[in-house]
Amino acid sequence: MHRVLSVLLLVIATGALAAGRETMVLQVVYPSAAELLPSLEPLLSEGSRISAHHDRLVVNATSDEIATVRNAVRALDRPPRRLLIEVRRQGSQSLSATGQDPRGGTPPGFGPESRRQPVRGPAIREIHTRGHFDQTQRVRALDRRPALVRLTQAVPVQQVELLPYGVGFSQRYQADYRETASGFWVLPEVRGDQVTVRVRQSAEQPIDNRFTGQQVDTVLQGRLGEWLPLASTGDVQSGGATPDGWNASTRRASDWAMELRVIAVD
Questions:
Q1: CB-based burial of residue 141 (10 Å sphere; 0-12 exposed, 13-18 middle, 19+ buried)?
Q2: Domain end: 61, 76, 91, which one?
Q3: What's the pTM?
Q4: Residue 160 pairs with which residues in a beta bridge?
Q5: Residue 237 above 80 pLDDT?
Q6: Domain of residue 209, residue span
Q7: Cβ(85)–Cβ(230) under 8 Å?
Q8: What's the first-to-final CA gap in the chain, in angstroms?
């Protein structure tokens, strides 16, 4: 690596002498040198160049531009601020299921076992369940460093059990809750009291503390400590079936909203 850098410096210096420019190598301590390029490149005029190599910046510019870049690096090369990222998810979920036997009858679970005899009219069974949730997840993070946020939630799942009834079967409905886990990456960047959060809703880990253009799904901007809307949905799903003469219908509804905020710890 040192040999490659030496050759590069020699090539740059040769061109710099002819153009009246100088070459300077600046050491970077806290961020990677590549992270500083977007902030430093606008400081150079046409013909001047700056490149990053691990923890070093190679600047080929006039003496005044080099001085400007050096001062900017001193201001930008600082320990990353400690942050607390909070993700709040609020909403409700419901599940309704109805089973009806148009042939009539009293399947198991409707009444005393001694009265399990056919009756006139359809046999109907319904279940309804509804739950509210308010979940807050907290993750410690550093400025300009990616952090993984993991969320869990309980999802209502309909269970159908076939029970012997006469010469056929009847259905018993039951609602259970199962926990599901999901996660996404966040990349916060603080400037004064303003924060920009890039969100990548994927299991792919960012490389070099940065997201590519294809990786960023959402960009949030606001003040430190302010709740920023991240996602929301209102979803209704319906279904039906007719197994063994039974008419079954289900309806699952979900309404939720997710917000995110960044708090400066130091």
A1: buried
A2: 76
A3: 0.57
A4: 173
A5: no
A6: 82-264
A7: no
A8: 37
